[in-house]
Predict the 3D structure of the following.
Amino acid sequence: MKKHHLTRSALVVILSAILVVAIGCAKKDEGKIPITTTSESAREYYLQGRDLFERLQAQESRQYFEKAVAEDPNFAMGYLFLSFAQPTNKGFFENLDKAVALVDNASEGERLWILGVEAGTNAFAMKQRELYQQLVELYPNDERAHNLLGTNYFGQQEYASAIEVYNKATEIAPNFSPPYNQLGYAHRFLENYAEAEKAFQKYIELIPDDPNPYDSYAELLLKMGRYDESIENYRNALEYNPNFVASHIGIATNLNYKGQHGEARKQLQKLYDIARNDGERRAAHFAMTVSYVDQGDMDKALKEQEKQYALAEKINDATAMAGDLVTMGDILREMGKYDQALEKHEKAVEIVEASDRSEEVKDNFRRGFLYNSARVAFKKGDFATAKAQAEEYRQRVEAIKNPFQIRLAHQLAGMIALEEKEYNTALSELQQANQQNPYNFYRIALAYRGKGDKEKAKEFSLKAANFNQLNSLAQAYIRTKAQRLADEM
């Protein structure tokens, strides 16, 4: 990341101004992370934007963050939240870079917050956790500090720890709504559906005129297979904000699972037609991709990805383009077109290498290429290459201590073992892989079938088929196959 340099005299002036504002904020918000800006109007714009963003209305919040940094071009937290509100990857990285460059102008709490976001973006999950633990120690009475730490645990699928930290945030500020949303999801992932519903109902109670509480509750109903009730709650969300992207996608997901793919895509076309920016158009294209894959029409799914790619290419959004190419490669691999799949994965990493993204972001894509090329190699029967790349991937992700990518290393090893009919090894590895990926349950079902355990094969194939994940390509790839396998057992 670029570093920001100031002359000594300029730095003294800026720090003096920040100190005045920070002290003023501390009096009003005792024990909270200060808001360090030289402009009171920038602070007010920031607070208006933060309130909207924390209620998951990112597009609506963006104008306020833009006004905040216009009033104070050295407002680090203004740029951080402006990065979150961007509709494109390119905009996210550009504004995050500005926030990082300005951390020396911010308070220690804001510095830890910003550097934690940078660490997470670079896939350094444990470094982020360390920074957020420091933040909580520094501001033990700040609900947002606890919410950040809880979200780190949540992202690494340590849901019990996340729940503990989120509960602390709600104790500090009972009317602070974001932790209730995350509590609902954490309990949902643990299949504590009664507790999840309780958290979402509290979330609705706190901000009843906002779309996201109804959207989140609808996703719980989707998970439980209560599709019509889920659609009803998604429609409730759209009554409060007709542009709420996630609810259009949620309705489409329910319709896909009901086998009404044409109706699902009509809903997504509505989203596309009212989209306010290319980020929302890309979201519609991706959801269309999922719908076509779920229906089994891979050619049309690829065409949707090509349209999505064109939107990113228009502004040379390198990481978005690379992500689209990786998705195309995945679809081609599922189609058995392995050479074409590898070409997409190679092009993805080439685009990022040629970009101005940080070395850490590039290295993350290099690791991803090892994972993706190994998946192609074993499908082509080249197990030597697949195993060598899988081992290199494992070593690299263990070196950065990234729990999610370590799970991917186990997943890759399990996939190779399954292909070689080493079923016990496959089961051992896949049980250490991502347990929120329904494809892994399908792979586990195949391993049990290979061992001749029909009961377990049926159990896991049904778990895969009925996982009911929102807008998931992983489930779309295997939902029908998993149901067919269950019927055969």
